[in-house]
């Protein structure tokens, strides 16, 4: 039998997952600064299968605007370079011996505005997910009341608590989006 506490716990866990998903999505949005996490989506062909770049090379920062990729095997350099170039990140890697340098092109004002729109859209998607979870939790509580497993007072308290948790998660989304926008607009 499900209790109001179970419903709240499940909802909160799912909301936390939505926040984590948002954080992951935001790291993929490019800022003017270099960030090794930017290459997390790049996959390289390695002995016949596609593997994440981080499994065939060491990805680190050379400086604020350059990512360095150091392949662990000699023959991987060209494949890694090709994978980065063909990714949708708009990056142009250059190899220097075994080391591959990935400079971050400076972003135009227009590109920065585009990126902030993408960030806001990601934030909006996360908020919709949070609100859907709130609705599901409220419906589950109503169902308990209907089945006489909880009182209407319990329902009022539960809905107030669900709303508090929702507000907290929405505020966290707003904070993440604002921080990312600031990061993008910083020249």
Automatic annotation (TrEMBL):
<feature type="coiled-coil region">
    <location>
        <begin position="130"/>
        <end position="161"/>
    </location>
</feature>
<protein>
    <recommendedName>
        <fullName>Ribosome-recycling factor</fullName>
    </recommendedName>
</protein>
<dbReference type="InterPro" id="IPR002661">
    <property type="entry name" value="Ribosome_recyc_fac"/>
</dbReference>
<comment type="similarity">
    <text>Belongs to the RRF family.</text>
</comment>
<dbReference type="Pfam" id="PF01765">
    <property type="entry name" value="RRF"/>
</dbReference>
<dbReference type="InterPro" id="IPR023584">
    <property type="entry name" value="Ribosome_recyc_fac_dom"/>
</dbReference>
<dbReference type="InterPro" id="IPR036191">
    <property type="entry name" value="RRF_sf"/>
</dbReference>
<keyword id="KW-0963">Cytoplasm</keyword>
<keyword id="KW-0648">Protein biosynthesis</keyword>
<feature type="domain" description="Ribosome recycling factor">
    <location>
        <begin position="22"/>
        <end position="185"/>
    </location>
</feature>
<dbReference type="GO" id="GO:0005829">
    <property type="term" value="C:cytosol"/>
</dbReference>
<comment type="function">
    <text>Responsible for the release of ribosomes from messenger RNA at the termination of protein biosynthesis. May increase the efficiency of translation by recycling ribosomes from one round of translation to another.</text>
</comment>
<dbReference type="GO" id="GO:0043023">
    <property type="term" value="F:ribosomal large subunit binding"/>
</dbReference>
<dbReference type="GO" id="GO:0002184">
    <property type="term" value="P:cytoplasmic translational termination"/>
</dbReference>
<keyword id="KW-0175">Coiled coil</keyword>
